[in-house]
Every structure is written in C-alpha cells, then in structure tokens.
Amino acid sequence: QILRGGAFFSAMELIFLYKQQVRGIIEYPTSAIYHASDSVLAPLDALQGRVLRAAGLTDFEALLYARLAPLKTRRDIAMQGILHRQALGLGPKPLDALLIRDSSMPARHTRLSANRHRLQIQSHCGGQHTDYLRRSLLGAIDVYNLLPPSIVETSATVPELQGKLQSLVLERACAGMPDW
Predict the structure, then answer these.
(1) d(CA 122, CA 100)
(2) What is this structure's pTM?
(3) For 22-40, what is each residue's pLDDT tens digit?
(4) C-beta of residue 49 within 8 angstroms of C-beta of residue 15
(5) DSSP structural state of residue 93
(6) What are the residues whose beta carbons fall under 8 Å from the beta carbon of 144, sequence distance 6 or more?
C-alpha cells in the first residue's frame, strides 16, 4: 500500500513510512526466525529491497541517510542484544542455564585473547557446528565474544550496545569495507 502512493512521497518520506508501518511487523519475530536459512528469509529481505528501489536508494545510501541497515544486519544486531542482556544478568532466568558466563582465562596469551572483553559467554559450537547451529543464538555467541571491549564493556544497556553496533556497521560501510 505504501508503494502505491510512492509518487506522492519523497524518498525519505517513503523510507520513514516503511520504518514506521512495516519494519516492526517484519522484525517482530526476529528471535524466532533467526535460525532460518537465507532462502526462507529472502522474501522478508525482498520487502525492504522493494521499498529501497521505489525510493531510488541503494543499501549503502539507506544506511547512510536513513540509518536503515539491511534486515540481515538488523537481525544479527538484535541477537547480540539478547546475548548482551544475558551477559549483564538482566535476561530471562530460563536462559541462565543455556547462556553461561565464561570467566576462564585463555590457555594461551595471543593477540586475539588479549583483546577479549570481560563479559564472555561459553560457546556451544566448539568448532564442530552445523550450519543450523551457526545461524542460531548459540552461533551468535562466537560473534559476541569477539566484539571489541570498547563496545561491550562501555554499554550498560542493550539499546546502547545496539546503537554502537549500528554505528560500527556505518563506519565500516563508509570506509568501503565489503563485509559491512
């Protein structure tokens, strides 16, 4: 419906309407669908692609001008928020048995281990993970454990962490890094 009236709106108004009316519905089940394969999530991602095409914006321009990251990136950031809430001790109690803080010291002192933040969570993958497990909350633990300490340790709330992660994505995109 928004796209039908697209001729009456500027590109930024169209993006605003999408963010206000549609994105919340698409993102509502994020934690339930995060583990799904890319082919299953493609129709959801295509919705945002249609809006961006109608507005005449690329993914990078949408991120830069409207702070609208691709849905895959937003899902990843949302899952990092769940893990951060749990690491701060503010998450749901049933997850305490699954997401356990890891306070052990690394066996070897390397550059990677020296740059770890203090809110580590025990990984369940152990190098022998299936694709399904890697795409789940348990697979996201490995990413959370590698986040820079300057982001994790200075974020007292989940929205603060997620804002810093989105800023990191924007910074990497502006620097021309292909993996933003």
Answers:
(1) 6
(2) 0.86
(3) 999 999 999 889 988 889 9
(4) no
(5) G
(6) 80, 83, 84, 87, 121, 152
